[in-house]
Amino acid sequence: MAPYFTSSENHRKSQTRMNQKKQTPGQKKNSFEQAFLAQTTAKGIRKHLLTWYDKFQRDLPWRKNTEPYPVWVSEVMLQQTRVNTVVPYFERFMTAFPCIEHLACADSQQVLKLWEGLGYYARARNLHKASRIVVSEYEGVIPHEYQAFRKLPGVGEYISNAVLSIAFDQALAAVDANVKRVLARLLCMDEPVNISASQAVYQKAADALLSHRFPGAFNQAMMELGALVCTPASPACPDCPLSCQCRAFAADKTRQLPVRMAKKQIPSCHIAAGIVQKGNRMLITRRNPKGLLGGLWEFPGGKVKKGESASAACLREIFEETGIRAENCSFLTRICHAYTHFRIEMDVFVCRYVSGRVCLNGPIDYQWVTKEQLPEFPFPKANLKFMHMILDSK
Ligand code: SF4
């Protein structure tokens, strides 16, 4: 089924095609009628959705006002992350950095520490960089001009449209995974929602449907509907404000939509990491700020080679990364963790420092720390999964 809404260009093309075909009266609605129906339907959708949102929206800390800074922080945190996970992070972040100047002045370690466990750390690094640009180039005022805002680090189409619509009432449709799912069902769109090639199609549909009077509320309402009612596994259609307009509901296709392309199996990687003890201190290293988990601290380690034991890999990696010799590798635990494109199984060992001065190859910094100091440093989630075993040890 074609989407209800077409751009004026597509509309003209379809009109021409229709004019070329011979139509029997009443067989097909004429284009004026179709456009009228589409607009009526769009109006109905906007009205029902906004009324529902007004009544049922969740009370979330970033909805207390529409100041651009908290809106921006929340939207960055919410990318690929659930609302319930974000709430405590957002509150801690806003307490530590209540305005953009505070964030700009902060140390990158402090920013990463507040982001610890939230994942996708490039978001935090980019937000931090962007805050410094806003302060140095825009006197601390977040630019509301599309091109200027879009140029800031980490600001893509979704973030720009979400922030500018919510904070500045600009008519820009924000399309995230929730919105795509709602659109796919509402308009019976069968373009796979998880491939970038279909992003433009969903953006176009969202642009056509957007309320120009209340763009911020409309965008949030679409996302809220996707999160609360039009959920992935079991959409609550009888409770949905759009059930009368929903094509998938009418066609009993809500379970078939949205279409998703089968994902490739993600590779798995065997890692060994070592807690190297020297007296009451242990060695931690800091990852290069560029790349995966950039700027975070971790216990040294790396990939286990084919045919190598995990304990041997642990000692070899410690030596290769830090130049120090360790021994007495005793197994502590195995943890599993999934990233977006791969998963790891990490064998963690406790070992004893033997000799050598730290000479880094890969990491950009190191510290010998006591267990009491560990919570001061931002670590990746995989390390946090066994951190309690160190902190609880005597
Ligand atoms: S009627 Fe059902 S499938 Fe359609 S938008 Fe509402 S919840 Fe989603």
Structure description:
With 394 residues, this protein is α+β, with helices and mostly antiparallel strands. The protein has 2 domains: 12-250, Hypothetical protein, domain 2 (Endonuclease III, domain 1, Orthogonal Bundle), CATH 1.10.340; 268-391, Nucleoside Triphosphate Pyrophosphohydrolase, CATH 3.90.79.10. 44% of the residues lie in helices and 14% in strands. The protein has helices at 8-20, 31-56, 68-78, 83-96, 100-105, 108-115, 121-137, 146-150, 157-168, 177-186, 199-209, 215-228, 247-250, 310-322, 381-391; strands at 268-278, 281-286, 297-298, 301-303, 325-338, 343-355, 365-369. Strands 1, 2, 3, 4, 5, 6 and 7 form a 7-stranded mixed β-sheet that branches. A hairpin with a 2-residue loop joins strand 1 (268-278) and strand 2. The protein is elongated, with a radius of gyration of 26 Å. Bound molecules: iron/sulfur cluster (SF4). The site of iron/sulfur cluster has 15 residues, from helix 10 and helix 13.
